[in-house]
Amino acid sequence: MRRVVLATGNAGKLREMRAILAGHGLQVLPQSQFGIAPPPETGDSFAANALLKARHAAAASELPAIADDSGLEVDALGGRPGLHSARFAGEPADDRANNERLMAELDGVPEGRRGARYRCAMAFVQSADDPRPIVAEASWPGRIGLEPRGGGGFGYDPYFVTADGRTAAEMPADEKNRVSHRGQALALLAARMREAGW
């Protein structure tokens, strides 16, 4: 099995990404195993941030690396929180505080105007200076509910209502991993990695 560093410190993302990659013959190691701290996310897009994080992890570990950057875009908020989803309520990052701010900003917005989508970009580099990085992106449409439902997932999942009326937090993990923005992007990335000989 080939070793790949997963450039995330988010336990929820690590759990999901390991589950999705389980059948691809890769030994996925968290960057924390190498003492790698995340770099500042200075990119101007999810793809730019994913690539920045992947190159950083590859440089520090001297191994190939996979990274993601993802977030929630809410139509009524002009696409916010977007790139700032993880720290919407400020530092330190906290799911509860982020959701409280989201609900406060959407106070009074009717259900019909609460359209939203999760977006994810995944990047794979064989080395820090890989001239041909592999990038894949996907989105998952939905809307923001009026109250939280479900005990699964993480982040905004209890409020993110999918097309079938369930929140992302009400879905079994294996189903969410198939249909989510991260699941779609990672499946696409894995397919492109195979085409490239991985």
Question: Explain this structure to me?
Answer:
With 198 residues, the protein is of the alpha/beta class. The chain has a single domain (2-195), classed as Maf protein (Alpha-Beta Complex). The protein is 30% helix and 22% strand. It has helices at residues 11-21, 46-61, 95-105, 173-179, 181-195, and strands at 2-6, 26-30, 65-74, 115-125, 134-144, 160-161. β4 (115-125) and β5 (134-144) form a beta hairpin. α1 (11-21) crosses α4 (173-179) and α4 (173-179) packs across α5 (181-195). The radius of gyration is 17 Å and the shape is globular. The N and C termini lie close together (11 Å).
Give unreliable regions as ranges: none
Instruction: Fill in the CATH topology.
Output: Maf protein
* Helicity, as a percent range: 25-40%
Please tell me the overall pLDDT: 93
Structural class: alpha/beta
Strand order of the largest sheet: 2-1-3-4-5-6
What is the succession of H and E elements?
EHEHEHEEEHH
Count the domains: 1
What is the global morphology? globular
**Number of distinct helices:** 5
Question: Sheet bearing the most strands, described?
Answer: 6 strands, mixed
Radius of gyration: 17 Å
Overall number of strands: 6
| CATH second-level architecture | Alpha-Beta Complex
Record the SSE blueprint.
Blueprint: E1 2-6, H1 11-21, E2 26-30, H2 46-61, E3 65-74, H3 95-105, E4 115-125, E5 134-144, E6 160-161, H4 173-179, H5 181-195
Helix pairs in contact: 1-4, 1-5, 4-5
